[in-house]
Amino acid sequence: MLIIGVSGGTGCGKTTVVDQLVADLPKEAVSVLSQDFYYKDLGHMSREERSRVNFDHPDSIDFDLMLSQIKELQAGKGIDCPCYSFVEETRLAETLRIEPKAILIVEGILVFHPPALRDLFNLKLFIEADTDERLLRRMRRDLSERGHDLDKSIQRYREVVKPMYDAFVAPTRSCADFIVPNYDHKPANTRWLSRMLQSEIQQHGVS
Ligand SMILES: Nc1ncnc2c1ncn2[C@@H]1O[C@H](COP(=O)(O)OP(=O)(O)O)[C@@H](O)[C@H]1O
Ligand SMILES: O=c1ccn([C@@H]2O[C@H](COP(=O)(O)O)[C@@H](O)[C@H]2O)c(=O)[nH]1
Protein backbone atom coordinates (compact mmCIF):
# COMPACT_ATOMS: atom_id res chain seq x y z
CA MET A 1 0.00 0.00 0.00
CA LEU A 2 1.27 3.45 -0.97
CA ILE A 3 0.46 6.06 1.68
CA ILE A 4 0.31 9.71 0.66
CA GLY A 5 0.13 12.50 3.25
CA VAL A 6 -1.52 15.79 2.29
CA SER A 7 -1.16 18.74 4.65
CA GLY A 8 -1.24 22.55 4.75
CA GLY A 9 -3.10 25.23 6.70
CA THR A 10 -6.85 25.47 7.00
CA GLY A 11 -8.47 26.49 3.70
CA CYS A 12 -5.37 25.80 1.58
CA GLY A 13 -7.31 23.27 -0.50
CA LYS A 14 -6.37 19.85 0.92
CA THR A 15 -9.85 18.40 0.39
CA THR A 16 -10.07 19.95 -3.08
CA VAL A 17 -6.70 18.48 -4.12
CA VAL A 18 -7.55 15.06 -2.68
CA ASP A 19 -10.91 15.10 -4.52
CA GLN A 20 -9.06 15.93 -7.75
CA LEU A 21 -6.68 13.00 -7.26
CA VAL A 22 -9.48 10.59 -6.38
CA ALA A 23 -11.44 11.64 -9.48
CA ASP A 24 -8.40 10.85 -11.66
CA LEU A 25 -7.84 7.35 -10.23
CA PRO A 26 -9.84 4.11 -10.38
CA LYS A 27 -12.17 4.15 -7.35
CA GLU A 28 -11.23 0.61 -6.39
CA ALA A 29 -7.59 1.72 -6.01
CA VAL A 30 -7.77 4.61 -3.56
CA SER A 31 -9.16 5.32 -0.11
CA VAL A 32 -9.00 8.53 1.89
CA LEU A 33 -8.65 9.15 5.61
CA SER A 34 -9.14 12.63 7.03
CA GLN A 35 -7.58 13.80 10.26
CA ASP A 36 -10.98 15.38 10.95
CA PHE A 37 -12.44 11.88 11.53
CA TYR A 38 -10.20 11.59 14.58
CA TYR A 39 -11.14 14.67 16.59
CA LYS A 40 -11.56 13.35 20.12
CA ASP A 41 -15.05 12.48 21.30
CA LEU A 42 -16.36 15.48 23.24
CA GLY A 43 -19.79 14.02 23.92
CA HIS A 44 -19.25 14.36 27.69
CA MET A 45 -18.91 18.17 27.39
CA SER A 46 -21.63 20.79 27.12
CA ARG A 47 -22.02 22.81 23.88
CA GLU A 48 -20.50 25.78 25.67
CA GLU A 49 -17.45 23.77 26.83
CA ARG A 50 -16.96 22.28 23.35
CA SER A 51 -16.97 25.72 21.75
CA ARG A 52 -13.91 26.61 23.86
CA VAL A 53 -11.81 23.59 22.76
CA ASN A 54 -8.63 24.30 20.81
CA PHE A 55 -9.28 22.27 17.64
CA ASP A 56 -5.97 23.30 16.11
CA HIS A 57 -3.74 21.81 18.80
CA PRO A 58 -2.38 18.27 18.26
CA ASP A 59 -3.95 17.21 21.59
CA SER A 60 -7.43 17.59 20.03
CA ILE A 61 -6.77 14.63 17.71
CA ASP A 62 -6.77 10.95 18.68
CA PHE A 63 -3.54 10.20 16.83
CA ASP A 64 -3.17 6.83 18.60
CA LEU A 65 -6.42 5.61 17.07
CA MET A 66 -5.55 7.14 13.70
CA LEU A 67 -2.16 5.40 13.65
CA SER A 68 -3.54 2.05 14.74
CA GLN A 69 -6.26 2.20 12.07
CA ILE A 70 -3.74 3.07 9.35
CA LYS A 71 -1.66 0.09 10.47
CA GLU A 72 -4.76 -2.13 10.23
CA LEU A 73 -5.26 -0.97 6.64
CA GLN A 74 -1.60 -1.63 5.90
CA ALA A 75 -2.11 -5.15 7.25
CA GLY A 76 -4.93 -5.64 4.73
CA LYS A 77 -7.82 -5.25 7.18
CA GLY A 78 -10.85 -2.96 6.83
CA ILE A 79 -11.56 -0.37 9.52
CA ASP A 80 -14.62 1.35 11.00
CA CYS A 81 -13.43 4.88 11.50
CA PRO A 82 -15.19 7.49 13.60
CA CYS A 83 -17.30 10.25 12.04
CA TYR A 84 -17.16 13.84 13.28
CA SER A 85 -19.70 16.64 13.06
CA PHE A 86 -18.33 20.18 12.74
CA VAL A 87 -21.77 21.55 13.49
CA GLU A 88 -22.19 19.55 16.73
CA GLU A 89 -18.44 19.78 17.47
CA THR A 90 -18.27 16.15 18.51
CA ARG A 91 -18.05 12.57 17.28
CA LEU A 92 -21.19 11.01 15.82
CA ALA A 93 -22.57 7.59 16.76
CA GLU A 94 -22.07 6.18 13.26
CA THR A 95 -18.79 4.93 11.81
CA LEU A 96 -17.44 4.81 8.26
CA ARG A 97 -16.18 1.54 6.79
CA ILE A 98 -12.91 1.90 4.91
CA GLU A 99 -11.33 -1.02 3.07
CA PRO A 100 -7.61 -1.37 2.31
CA LYS A 101 -6.72 -0.37 -1.25
CA ALA A 102 -3.53 0.14 -3.26
CA ILE A 103 -3.32 3.83 -2.35
CA LEU A 104 -4.26 5.48 0.92
CA ILE A 105 -4.43 9.29 1.08
CA VAL A 106 -4.29 10.80 4.57
CA GLU A 107 -5.10 14.51 4.84
CA GLY A 108 -5.19 17.08 7.62
CA ILE A 109 -3.58 20.20 9.04
CA LEU A 110 -1.51 18.22 11.57
CA VAL A 111 -0.74 14.93 9.82
CA PHE A 112 2.97 15.80 9.46
CA HIS A 113 3.27 16.72 13.13
CA PRO A 114 3.58 13.38 15.00
CA PRO A 115 6.81 11.69 13.84
CA ALA A 116 5.22 8.22 14.00
CA LEU A 117 2.54 9.30 11.51
CA ARG A 118 4.86 11.40 9.35
CA ASP A 119 7.21 8.44 8.96
CA LEU A 120 4.45 6.23 7.53
CA PHE A 121 4.04 8.41 4.43
CA ASN A 122 5.68 7.33 1.19
CA LEU A 123 5.00 10.78 -0.25
CA LYS A 124 4.23 14.07 1.49
CA LEU A 125 2.46 16.99 -0.21
CA PHE A 126 2.09 20.41 1.40
CA ILE A 127 -0.66 22.46 -0.25
CA GLU A 128 -0.03 26.16 -0.28
CA ALA A 129 -2.22 29.24 -0.73
CA ASP A 130 -1.75 32.82 0.46
CA THR A 131 -2.72 33.30 4.11
CA ASP A 132 -5.35 35.93 3.35
CA GLU A 133 -6.91 33.70 0.72
CA ARG A 134 -7.01 30.76 3.15
CA LEU A 135 -8.70 32.98 5.72
CA LEU A 136 -11.37 34.13 3.24
CA ARG A 137 -12.05 30.56 2.11
CA ARG A 138 -12.28 29.39 5.70
CA MET A 139 -14.67 32.18 6.75
CA ARG A 140 -17.01 31.40 3.89
CA ARG A 141 -16.95 27.70 4.76
CA ASP A 142 -17.32 28.24 8.55
CA LEU A 143 -20.41 30.34 7.97
CA SER A 144 -22.03 28.29 5.23
CA GLU A 145 -21.15 24.71 6.24
CA ARG A 146 -19.83 24.52 9.78
CA GLY A 147 -22.51 26.44 11.67
CA HIS A 148 -20.23 29.25 12.97
CA ASP A 149 -21.20 32.90 13.15
CA LEU A 150 -18.92 35.68 11.94
CA ASP A 151 -17.74 36.76 15.42
CA LYS A 152 -16.95 33.21 16.51
CA SER A 153 -15.07 32.55 13.30
CA ILE A 154 -12.97 35.73 13.59
CA GLN A 155 -12.24 35.18 17.29
CA ARG A 156 -11.15 31.55 16.72
CA TYR A 157 -8.94 32.52 13.83
CA ARG A 158 -7.15 35.21 15.84
CA GLU A 159 -6.84 33.35 19.13
CA VAL A 160 -6.26 29.78 18.01
CA VAL A 161 -6.09 28.99 14.30
CA LYS A 162 -3.31 31.40 13.35
CA PRO A 163 -1.06 30.82 16.40
CA MET A 164 -1.46 27.04 16.11
CA TYR A 165 -0.68 27.19 12.39
CA ASP A 166 2.52 29.06 13.19
CA ALA A 167 3.46 26.63 15.97
CA PHE A 168 2.47 23.23 14.54
CA VAL A 169 1.64 23.39 10.83
CA ALA A 170 4.07 25.84 9.20
CA PRO A 171 7.14 24.06 10.68
CA THR A 172 6.13 20.82 8.93
CA ARG A 173 6.24 22.44 5.47
CA SER A 174 9.94 21.67 5.23
CA CYS A 175 9.41 17.91 5.61
CA ALA A 176 7.19 17.78 2.50
CA ASP A 177 8.46 16.16 -0.70
CA PHE A 178 6.45 18.59 -2.82
CA ILE A 179 4.90 22.00 -2.22
CA VAL A 180 1.72 22.22 -4.32
CA PRO A 181 0.50 25.77 -5.04
CA ASN A 182 -3.28 26.17 -4.95
CA TYR A 183 -3.81 29.89 -5.40
CA ASP A 184 -7.08 31.73 -5.80
CA HIS A 185 -8.96 30.48 -8.87
CA LYS A 186 -5.79 28.75 -10.06
CA PRO A 187 -6.45 25.13 -9.13
CA ALA A 188 -3.52 23.03 -8.05
CA ASN A 189 -1.86 21.02 -10.81
CA THR A 190 -2.02 17.38 -9.75
CA ARG A 191 -1.91 15.75 -13.21
CA TRP A 192 1.74 14.74 -12.73
CA LEU A 193 0.87 12.88 -9.54
CA SER A 194 -2.23 11.20 -11.02
CA ARG A 195 -0.10 9.94 -13.91
CA MET A 196 2.56 8.64 -11.55
CA LEU A 197 -0.06 6.88 -9.41
CA GLN A 198 -1.85 5.44 -12.47
CA SER A 199 1.39 3.84 -13.65
CA GLU A 200 2.06 2.54 -10.12
CA ILE A 201 -1.42 0.95 -10.13
CA GLN A 202 -0.82 -0.58 -13.58
CA GLN A 203 2.43 -2.14 -12.42
CA HIS A 204 1.27 -3.40 -9.03
CA GLY A 205 -2.51 -3.85 -9.40
CA VAL A 206 -5.26 -2.24 -7.35
CA SER A 207 -4.87 -4.04 -4.02
N1 LIG B 1 -7.79 27.26 -6.11
C1 LIG B 1 -8.91 27.65 -5.48
N2 LIG B 1 -9.52 28.81 -5.79
C2 LIG B 1 -10.66 29.23 -5.16
N3 LIG B 1 -11.27 28.53 -4.17
C3 LIG B 1 -10.71 27.37 -3.79
C4 LIG B 1 -9.51 26.86 -4.42
N4 LIG B 1 -9.19 25.67 -3.82
C5 LIG B 1 -10.14 25.45 -2.88
N5 LIG B 1 -11.05 26.44 -2.86
C6 LIG B 1 -12.23 26.58 -1.96
O1 LIG B 1 -11.74 26.91 -0.66
C7 LIG B 1 -12.50 26.27 0.35
C8 LIG B 1 -11.55 25.44 1.23
O2 LIG B 1 -11.01 24.41 0.43
P1 LIG B 1 -10.75 22.97 1.05
O3 LIG B 1 -10.28 22.08 -0.06
O4 LIG B 1 -11.93 22.53 1.85
O5 LIG B 1 -9.52 23.31 2.03
P2 LIG B 1 -8.91 22.52 3.27
O6 LIG B 1 -9.39 21.08 3.14
O7 LIG B 1 -7.43 22.64 3.11
O8 LIG B 1 -9.42 23.20 4.49
C9 LIG B 1 -13.55 25.42 -0.38
O9 LIG B 1 -14.75 26.15 -0.41
C10 LIG B 1 -12.98 25.27 -1.79
O10 LIG B 1 -13.98 25.13 -2.76
O1 LIG C 1 -15.34 21.19 15.58
C1 LIG C 1 -14.43 21.70 14.89
C2 LIG C 1 -13.22 21.04 14.64
C3 LIG C 1 -12.29 21.68 13.86
N1 LIG C 1 -12.52 22.90 13.33
C4 LIG C 1 -11.50 23.55 12.48
O2 LIG C 1 -11.21 22.74 11.36
C5 LIG C 1 -9.92 23.08 10.88
C6 LIG C 1 -9.28 21.89 10.19
O3 LIG C 1 -10.02 21.51 9.07
P1 LIG C 1 -9.63 22.07 7.60
O4 LIG C 1 -10.61 21.34 6.70
O5 LIG C 1 -8.24 21.69 7.34
O6 LIG C 1 -9.84 23.55 7.60
C7 LIG C 1 -9.12 23.53 12.08
O7 LIG C 1 -8.44 24.73 11.76
C8 LIG C 1 -10.17 23.74 13.18
O8 LIG C 1 -10.12 25.05 13.70
C9 LIG C 1 -13.70 23.54 13.55
O9 LIG C 1 -13.92 24.65 13.04
N2 LIG C 1 -14.66 22.92 14.34
Description:
This protein has a single domain (2-203), classed as Rossmann fold (3-Layer(aba) Sandwich). Helices cover 38% and strands 20% of the residues. It has helices at residues 14-24, 47-50, 63-74, 115-118, 131-144, 150-169, 191-204; strands at 2-7, 30-34, 79-85, 90-98, 103-107, 123-128, 178-181. A hairpin with a 4-residue loop joins β3 and β4. α5 crosses α6 (150-169). The longest helix is centred in the C-terminal third of the chain and has 20 residues, at 150-169. The model has no long low-confidence stretch (mean pLDDT 95). The ligand O=c1ccn([C@@H]2O[C@H](COP(=O)(O)O)[C@@H](O)[C@H]2O)c(=O)[nH]1 binds at residues 10-11, 14, 36, 39, 55-56, 86, 89, 109, 146, 161.
Architecture blueprint of SSEs:
Elements: E1 2-7, H1 14-24, E2 30-34, H2 47-50, H3 63-74, E3 79-85, E4 90-98, E5 103-107, H4 115-118, E6 123-128, H5 131-144, H6 150-169, E7 178-181, H7 191-204
Parallel strand pairs: 1-5, 1-6, 2-5, 6-7
Antiparallel strand pairs: 3-4
Helix pairs in contact: 5-6
CATH superfamily: P-loop containing nucleotide triphosphate hydrolases
Number of separate helices: 7
CATH topology: Rossmann fold
Number of domains: 1
Radius of gyration: 17 Å
What gross morphology would you assign?
globular
Oligomer: single chain
Brief characterization of the structure:
The chain has helices spanning 14-24, 47-50, 63-74, 115-118, 131-144, 150-169, 191-204, and strands at 2-7, 30-34, 79-85, 90-98, 103-107, 123-128, 178-181. By secondary structure, the chain is α/β, with parallel strands linked by helices. The chain is globular, with a radius of gyration of 17 Å.
